[in-house]
Design brief:
With 124 residues, the protein is mostly beta strands. It is built from 1 helix and 11 strands; from the N terminus they run βββββββββαββ. The N and C termini lie far apart (40 Å).
Length: 124
């Protein structure tokens, strides 16, 4: 069983920055797992944001965040990060951490393990 705990959300003004973290613990079926971020805005379906392979050598982003968000991970700390810059009101959502067998699995809807989410509000 894998436990995922997100942190770092909060209220930020448009144009500001936030750094989300996802701490993983427990055991995954595939030790060389990919990880990713999803988000769900009020009244909308959950959507893919970014994914990263075990080595960090492969990343994937949804078009609306390319150039503004950066996903990274520190396997020694079992932690994944999402650096969010130039934030816009439309980035407001609950952000969820996910673990999957590969980047493709994550980008195609996510693997089996999810965190509880962290709220990001972008507003002046």
């Amino acid at each position: 069983q894998v436990q995922l705990v997100e942190s770092g959300g909060g209220l930020v003004q448009p144009g500001g920055s936030l750094r989300l973290s996802c701490a993983a613990s427990g055991r995954t079926v595939n030790p060389y797992h990919a990880m990713g971020w999803f988000r769900q805005a009020p009244g909308k379906e959950r959507e893919f944001v970014a994914a990263i392979s075990w080595s960090g050598g492969t990343t994937s982003y949804t078009a609306s965040v390319k150039g503004r968000f950066t996903i990274s991970r520190d396997n020694a700390k079992n932690t994944m990060y999402l650096e969010m810059n130039s934030l816009k009101p439309e980035d407001t959502a609950v952000y969820y951490c996910n673990v999957g067998a590969s980047v493709r699995v994550v980008t195609d809807g996510g693997g089996d393990y999810w965190g509880q989410g962290t709220q990001v509000i972008v507003s002046s």
